[in-house]
Amino acid sequence: xxxxxxxxxxxxxxxxxxxxxxxxxxxxxxxxxxxxxxxxxxxxxxxxxxxxxxxxxxxxxxxxxxxxxxxxxxxxxxxxxxxxxxxxxxxxxxxxxxxxxxxxxxxxxxxxxxxxxxxxxxxxxxxxxxxxxxxxxxxxxxxxxxxxxxxxxxxxxxxxxxxxxxxxxxxxxxxxxxxxxxxxxxxxxxxxxxxxxxxxx
Length: 201
Hints:
44% helix, 8 helices, single chain, two-stranded antiparallel sheet
């Protein structure tokens, strides 16, 4: 049986990101779903939730980077689906608030003005994350977080503290927020490959 990878991109990126390419290149026999998601986090979660629900009886594994890592962890709490998190952005309201009033350019050429409404929406998502950590925690062996210790965007000490509180397993790498070299990690890191290739259904 083939696994199904649901790749969830970060804020401002697209479903055609480098993380999706790494999955396609390294695991060509497995199915990949990698949708383009809107800027609004509640809309994004609705789309992702729908895909997860549609595939609930299939061997689905989430892979989320940056804000997509946040969404993946929330989906784990909602549906107990395994999730590989790549530099997950787990304090989204703070991150977006720091860009309040700025024009944010997306990889597809579109742009948005970061407003208080965006901050409020991400604050709602952050509350769901906190509730999931407090009331559930992660299922043993079902969440693996890859942390780039040279991340220029996230405070990785804060991210690792949140992940430890949730009960996620953490592996650190000497790389940046984009996680340069992820294609090689997916190709050669036995622990990551085993996580992605384990049949759970």
